[in-house]
Amino acid sequence: MSGPHHVSPEVRQRLSAPRGHRFSRPGANRRLVAPPESHQDRQERLLRQMEGDPHLAYRLQHHAVPHWAKVTRRRREQVKREPRRPDPPLPSPNRGRHRAPRRWWSWPAVAISAALLFVHSQIESLGETIFQAGFPL
Length: 137
Description:
This protein is mainly alpha-helical and 137 residues long. It has helices at 9-16, 39-49, 54-62, 67-81, 95-98, 106-133. 55% of the residues lie in helices and 0% in strands.
């Protein structure tokens, strides 16, 4: 490629920009719009956020309350009044299924060590008596 190349300033600006910032992405700057919220959903969300507020408690006690709030309150009170049934006991977990069984290598190791120690002491005492008495040839 020979000859002078005239490149527009916009192209130079794009080429000199860092990777990932050279071109705009369509829809990248557009905000995601949430679906419209119903009046009841909005009230429920706001009441959950304001739980424990004394002004809200006064309003719920002395003013008109939406139907869904009355139904929810009745359900909560009914659950509190009903005697709670004891939960059935859970079966004990079967330990062999979720991990390998424990190997009992320590007891055989102790038994072998004790046997070797006993044999060693017997041979040592036997060798000591033979050395002191003299070995008959």
